[in-house]
Structure formats: structure tokens, C-alpha cells
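Quick one from the shared queue. A colleague (R.T.) flagged DUF11 domain-containing protein as missing a structural entry in our internal table.

Convert sequence to C-alpha cells.
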Amino acid sequence: MIKKTTTHLSSVGIALLLAAPSVYAACPTGTSTVNFTWDGAGSGNNATWGFTDTSKTYTVNYTDTSGSPASVDITMSLRDPDKINVDSDVRDAGNHKYDPAGGCLPSTGETTDQWAGNGSIIDPWDSDCNGLASTLVTGTRMAYGPGFLTWVALSSHHEQEMFLDFSFSRPAMMMDQFTIGDIDSAGLAYESNPPMSIYERPGNSYQDEVGLFASMNGVDVPTIISQVGSTLTVTGQTIRSFYDTNIINNLAPTDPQGTVTVATASPIDKFSIMYSNGEEDALDEQANPNLYSWWSGTNGATNGASDNHAVRVSGFTFCMAEPPKDFGDAPATYPTLQADNGANHLMSQSLYLGDCVDADTNGQVTATPSGDDNATGSITYGICATAGADEDSITPVSLSDGQTSPSVTVKTHNTTGADATLACWIDYNGDKTFDNATERTSTTVANNATSVSLTLPNVPATTSTTTGGSTVMRCRLATNAGEIANATGNAGSGEIEDHPVTLTAAAPVCATVTNTVNITTLNETDSNAANNTASAAIQANCAETKTDLKLVKVANKTTVKRGDTVIYTITLENESDAIATNVKVAEDLPNSLTLVTATPSQGTFANGIWDVGNVAARTTLTLTLEVTVNP
């Protein structure tokens, strides 16, 4: 609480930043210590807040456990539903019950007053007229000096509350060394020095009250309240100054009697402070109506109105876990491991490949890219069909020598609000690295796009021989195209997926073979030499022009009851050497069954139609349907 005494304000102005006691000796292993500081602290981010601000985002830089620079964004917002925050008079004019006209004249009967009023009985203080950047308003480098946030309110009754919300862009593992100071009060009989005018009542009793709340994903996280000042009481997560008539708990801002420290022991993504005037003010005033007859006769019973009251908000320390990253799983030469500058992405809930992405501690090196798909990460964004199987954006890729402009469909998730970039590489020459000149392709992924068609580089004529029939494809999705100009290194968003690619020799060129026979020797003269030659032609190495598709459908159960789940597996096989194009399969599900999920190995399924697309020669595809038996 700040009161209207010159001596008190002077002591506030020279307040120094004091280090808060620490609940924890150090941040846990695997986390980094991050300091949020207010302007003037001399270190940390030195956040600024002006008396007209309502929300600001601060980027707090730090060094992660690997020694690399990192950052986290913290957004602070002021929630003030009753408009009791004290800012410039222009902003507050018409909002405060005590200042409907926005005037700044002396109170009735006064010639001088440190806090002038406009002469109206409903404007006994008009404290928000003191709205200059160097005085008692909410902001940094205000009444409490550098290194602190001065948080000020002017209540018309004790039920009015306002809040400061701190939201973290990534969960903080725990928070520490956060203090709120100058929580104090004065009893009803207290008269300021110099004595208050009667028009400055009901303002000579007050009590600071703060609530401390933390949460993670909207679920409350307990706070640890410690170093509680001797004049304070704690009920749950609410701290109040001890209130007693005739007692003046008018403490200096640095006095530990009016200070409390708070911390959390579990991850949080939001921390909130509630500030209000304690209800004991109203109760005490109503118990002494003789002191307020001039007020209650016109305005009714007193209700705990308070002169300007304020608390001192410190900076704080928190422990930041390493941001979740996604790595690849190709052989190490590509490269894949973090130590080799392997491709890795900071995970984002708004940008990834396929249906999900999960966190990796490092690259999962495997001969055929599959290690990442078998590792369940500690954090998953999206929903994986199978736990850990986040390499799910592309169906198996098969290419043939000499193929021009082959294309693949890549499943994407982009809700960033802006376009992103997808870049893919295929190791065509089998040298176990990716070449940007001949093996890279890219495309734009629009905001809200769920899939894109990507045209791959032309396949070299002898790649199946060069690679031994198999190679690796790497795809990277990021908001910053420059970060994925190469197949290695860090990206600040998105996902990386490594996939196996099958390469086959091209079918022999179809040719016409002609076999000719001639009569070369004859003793007599042939009267018709034109028929002495005969030929027969055959077509060699020509692909079949007819396809042969085969469907098989099986159920995992032969006997069911109502409510049971049944899995149907539909197998589509091309038994010919010719490609089948634009294939669609209709599924006529009986009314007695309800479809739950449909999972095609290629193409899409919607409204009873499996849109397969092209089916390569000698290829088998599947559609899995999960259904329930209707009651």
C-alpha cells in the first residue's frame, strides 16, 4: 500500500532491487536458468511497462544447456474489469466513480493538497490526476524505482479485483524468487500526517490483498508461498495484510514484514497475480458509521473504498527445459546426429508433417530410415495413429530409372497463419549425402494446407544400379525457407522426416523385331523375282496394355454382437505388368454398421469411395476399415 505522505513516497523512490530468497538451490539437470527482470535491474531482459500499457510480449534470451543461444517469450497482460488501475487522467476520465469528470481541482474547503480533488463530494481523492510518468502510476521506474514494477489501484469497493497474467510461450519447469512487497494496511482510526480532510474519507483505512495462481494447460498448479512477512496472513493462495483498528501497518517497500515470496515446483505456462482491497475495510467502516455520516447520507453504506494502494512486483527466475526437437533417422553420413550438424527442428504445435510429430533427444541412426518411427518422444504434437510413428507424411516411394517429374503427395499441418516451405532431397547417386543442385526440390505449403503435391527431381537413367535399388529421401518443413536451404542444421520450426525410397530399372524399350528370308541362288530365271523375299515382324519388350486388378476383403471376426468393433481389411492387387490409372473402389457399408475410421495405404477414403489413384504393376495396396455393429 502506498499512502499520501511525502515521506513515504520519498522512501519508495530510492528503493533498491533486493534479491529474493530462493526456494531451490539450482535448476534441475537438463534445464537452464532464465531471469526475467524489470527495467533498471541492470541484468536480464529489463522489461519496460508504461502506465498506458495493457499487454506486452517480452523475449527473454538465455543460454541453453548445450551452450547455444535460446529464448522464450513471456506475455504480460493487465486484466482490469472494474477499471481500477491508476493511469493517466485522460485515459481514466469517466471510468472511476471518484473521477467522473476527469477534474483535478482541490477538494472543497482545501487550498493546498498533495493530491488535489475537483471539489466534488464524490471525488474525495482524484488520485489518478497524478498520472505523470514519474509519479504514482502502474509502470517500471515509477514510485518503487528501477528494477521493480509499481502496480497501483484505486478501489471504490473491496470486491473489485485486477490481475497481471504472465503467459509463457513454452512451459517453464518451475518458477522461483518472485516477490510482492509493500503489502500493508492501516486501521480505521489512522489519520495521515498531515491530517486528512473529512472529504478524504473513507480512505483512512485500507488493506492490501494479493492472490497468486499458476496453471499448466488450464489446470491449476500449486504455488509454494514462503518468506511470509510477520504482518501478513495466508489463506490458501491469498495473502492479506493483518488488519486491526488503530493499527498502522504502514511499511517501507523494502520491509520484509510486508513481503511474500512465491515459487512453483511443477511446469507452468501461466502465472497470475490478483490484487484487491481487503474486505475488512468495509466491515470496519460499517461498524463506525459516525465517521462516515457525510458519505452514507448521500451515497449509502461505505464499502471498503481505498485511496491509491499499490504493491511492488519483483522480477523472477524460472527453469527452462530444452525446447522439444525433432531429428531424422537416416544413416549417419547424411548427416543425422546432432554432433554432426544433423538436421533438426524446434517442434511447433502449428507446423509439422503428417498427423503428428514427437520429440527426439538426438538423431535415430538406422540403415533404413525407421528409427524415429519406433521412438516415442516425451512430447507429441498432433495425434499419431501409432505411438511414436511420426514419420507419416508420405506413403512408401518407388521410382524407376529415367522417370521424369515424378510426384508425391505429402501430408502437412500448417496453422501458423502464414505460408511455410517444404524441401525434399533424394540421394540419387548413392553417395550417402544430399546434393542441392540435382537432388533437391521444394514447394510452398499454404496456411491451413493439409497436403501438397511435390514434384521430385528427374530420376537418372542408371540410378537403380548406382544405388543398389534403394536410397534415402529427406523432407523438411519450416516457416523460414532459408533455414532449410540445406539438408543439415537447425530450423526454428516444423519437422524433418527421412524415408526409404525403392528404385527399379526401367522397363526395356518396346521394339519391333523383323525376320526376313530371301532366295539368293537359282539356276533358272525366276519370272517373278518380287516374291523371292518374305518377312515376319514381332513386338519385343512391350509392356502389357491390359491390367488385372484383384480385390480381397476379410473381417477379423466372424461372430459379433451389438456394439462390437470389427476390422475389415480390403486388399487391392494389380497382378499385371501394366499400371492401372485413376482407380476408385466403392465400399457399400450396410446400415447395420457404422464407420469409425478408414486407413488407406495409398490415396484417400471419403463418402464410401476409396480414391486410390494409380496402382503400379505387381503392387498390393490395403484399406483398413474400423466399424461398430449398430445396436
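The first strand starts at residue 31 and ends at 36.
The longest helix spans residues 6-13.
Added to the table.
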